[in-house]
TrEMBL record:
Pfam families: GmrSD_C. Residues 116-251 form the GmrSD restriction endonucleases C-terminal domain. It comes from Microbacterium esteraromaticum. This is DUF1524 domain-containing protein. It comes from the Bacteria. The lineage of its organism: Bacteria, Bacillati, Actinomycetota, Actinomycetes, Micrococcales.
Length: 271
């Protein structure tokens, strides 16, 4: 009898343990279900070990500074085509012209800390030396007007051997539309690198304020470049050409009909 009672007690204890474990399991299941309802199905899930695909890199957006036309469009514009867009008419009177109408000489229009004259010398000469960051003291010019090589040495009696030419002379511009430009536009015109070349001083003096009808560079190999610059400058500043000038430029460009139109690095003021 004693052994029977002992066995009954053991069974009772095992039953209680089993019931306890069952109750615990039910509680865990209930808690998990409630969590899924309240927080969503991702609660308690371990992170996926599957690699997430790397998103494809988006295409590079065009630069906001890019020109509106395509490079091919811009490169295909010729000086001859642009010449046909210029107004053709006679000169206006030279009345009221003075160098001062185009602002102080050799400004720093591009805000690089150097005046325009030294910028052009640095651009057009080779083997240059400087005093400080800007002042060109020596260099060598392959003169586009004559085809000769000229040594530039800054100083009295030597500096004038190399001069800065306005491809479209200021006086010529004054008689062909520059009177209608604003003060800022005329200053830009006088300092625009597109309208400036370092050249042989004597050739520059011979040119004076002549246009293509009265003067062309002795160096025939440079004539297409020269008149193309004149066309580009006049187009940029809304200047006109005379009939004789138009015909002279046409004769030159007919020998190089694909001569591209050079572009300015300076933005023309709107007013």
């Amino acid at each position: 009898m004693a052994s029977a009672r002992t066995a009954s007690k053991k069974l009772l204890r095992r039953g209680r343990k089993t019931l306890g474990l069952v109750a615990l399991g039910v509680a865990v299941l209930l808690i998990g279900s409630l969590a899924n309802v309240v927080f969503g199905d991702d609660v308690g899930h371990p992170p996926s070990l599957t690699a997430t695909p790397t998103p494809t890199e988006p295409a590079t957006a065009p630069s906001p500074d890019a020109p509106a036309g395509t490079p091919d469009d811009l490169q295909n514009v010729t000086a001859l085509q642009t010449l046909d867009t210029l107004t053709v008419k006679g000169r206006a009177p030279k009345t009221g012209y003075s160098r001062e109408q185009f602002g102080p000489r050799w400004q720093d229009v591009d805000r690089n800390g150097c005046d325009t004259r030294n910028d052009i010398l640095a651009r057009d000469l080779t083997d240059i030396t400087r005093t400080g960051n800007c002042r060109v003291t020596t260099g060598t010019l392959d003169d586009p007007f004559t085809g000769q090589t000229i040594d530039f040495i800054r100083g009295q009696g030597t500096s004038e051997l190399v001069q800065i030419d306005h491809v479209v002379a200021l006086s010529d511009a004054w008689q062909k539309g520059a009177q209608q430009l604003s003060t800022d536009q005329r200053a830009s015109f006088a300092n625009d690198p597109l309208n400036l070349l370092a050249v042989d001083g004597s050739a520059n003096a011979q040119k004076g304020d002549g246009d293509a009808a009265t003067w062309l560079p002795k160096n025939r190999a440079f004539r297409c470049d020269y008149v193309a610059r004149q066309v580009a400058v006049k187009a940029a500043y809304n200047l006109w050409v005379t009939p004789a000038e138009h015909d002279a430029i046409t004769r030159v460009l007919n020998t190089c009909p694909d001569q591209p139109l050079p572009a300015s690095t300076l933005s023309v003021p709107s007013s």
